[in-house]
Amino acid sequence: MGHKITKTKEGLRVPSDPIIPFIIGDGTGPDIWRAASAVIGAAVKKAYGKTREIEWKEIFAGEKAYNKTGEWLPAETEEAFRQYLVGIKGPLTTPVGGGYRSLNVALRQKLNLYVCLRPVKYYEGVPSPVKKPQLIDAVVFRENTEDVYAGLEVEEGSNEALKLRHFLSENFGWDIRKDSGIGIKPISRTASERLVRAAIQYAVKYNRKSVTFVHKGNIQKFTEGAFRQWGYELASREFGDKTAAADKTSNKETENKIIIKDAIADIFLQQILTRPAEFDVIATTNLNGDYISDALAAQIGGIGIAPGANINYETGHAIFEATHGTAPKYAGKNVVNPCSLILSGEMMLEYIGWKEAADIVDESLTRTIAQRHVTYDFARLMENANQVSTSEFAGKMINNM
Ligand code: NAP
Asked: Is 26 a catalytic residue?
């Protein structure tokens, strides 16, 4: 019988038999879950023999939940993530007219998972649209709870929009065109600071070289600009002995310290193509983070191999997930790429401190792709690839451990 992971002041307390809830997901979810859970289980066994084992606990969301319970996101699912702290999920169909904009967004909000974490690392042999994808090794910390993403929007022509427009005109003298939808962009000190804190703590823990704040503060001074300012202040206040702000004129790196720097989002999107080696940990607001993580993921092979997690480092809650959708046309065909969910599993192992098992997953993935065993999405862009099915890919990985 497994035990719960708990959170203490010192960090996570992980038993040797943690209960980890999982959502299989819709569409191709079952195909990739079967592959990913086999790989994760094999890596744990390889690393620890019989002394450690994950006890998986299935919970439901999306179509499977709806068919079983009539609800897209049953209360027990939320409760399971709350109780067991760490979980993993496959992709979910977004219900049309189901009361949710997105089940993923709903879960992030309910559990206050304020960091969207996306490591972006290149595996040799993966087809990439850039010349030197091996120079990319970045980790994106995207703020997950506010910005124009918070859903504070009113529709063009609605009473609310007209009322808001009238209020802004009367009280601020702001003249907004009558036929406008209006969205609000709150960026708080609280959310900015906890995001930046998590990014710097990560950089310290993993010996990363720099943390870059990506923002549009030149134009949006009191939101994006404030994010940048609060970031620098927090770095010097809480991590003064471990970090140094970059000297922008000379770009001189300070020895043994993590360099804190910033970049304006538009230039940044050029520089990650032209000078990717200059970026390491990236801390950014919600909307920027959305664009940046997809742009970076495209450079290292795209949607099939980009893992992610949503984390609250204060409570310990974390949900690891495939970042792509359900790819319904391939459902049940055992063809899609399971790497996104496998690497999310690797992140999860790392997060719970099972580093040996995480490293086994990473090394085996590196080896399997180098041997050119890949699923259709990579095979169609590679020469001399050995195209394998989803389950065969998992089998090759397990053999390579
Ligand atoms: P999608 O499911 O991500 O699929 C779009 C295309 O991406 C697929 O047709 C396929 O391209 C490629 N792809 C996706 N996953 C792949 C994998 N594992 N291996 C190889 N190729 C993969 O996006 P969508 O069709 O826009 O969305 C379908 C459903 O997923 C919607 O209900 C949407 O709301 C939901 N969704 C869920 C999440 C989530 O749960 N995190 C995220 C996004 C979307 P090719 O056809 O070129 O092979």
From this structure: no
